[in-house]
Structures are given as C-alpha cells and as structure tokens.
Amino acid sequence: MEIIELKADGKKLDILKALLKELKISFTTKKEEKGYNKEFVQMIKDATKEKGGKKINPEDIWESIK
Fold it and tell me: Would 2 be classed as within a structural domain?
C-alpha cells in the first residue's frame, strides 16, 4: 500500500472526496495546522527584553543563535 498526500480546499476538495468514494478508496482528512512554533515565539519575546539585542557572529550563525 502507498500513501498519497493531496492538499486541496473548497470545490476541488469536494470533487476529490466524491471521486475517492466512488472508487471505494479509503481516505482520511485533516485540517492544516497554522500558527507559529511556541518555542520560537518565546525566544523572540525573550530576545526583545534583552538590552542591546543579541549579537550574531556571521562566521558561525547557528552557534550564535543557541
């Protein structure tokens, strides 16, 4: 068995569901999650409280943002 992931909304989604039902293909649907990563938002809020901001080393960006 293989899994195919489709992203559709509105009328296209209704047509796809009807087609799958007609072909007797089982399927599930889920809403796409929207929003921001809570840890990232908290990191930004904490950084804005620091005086002078955060210094980033352009030679090693990933190490600087830890």
Answer: no
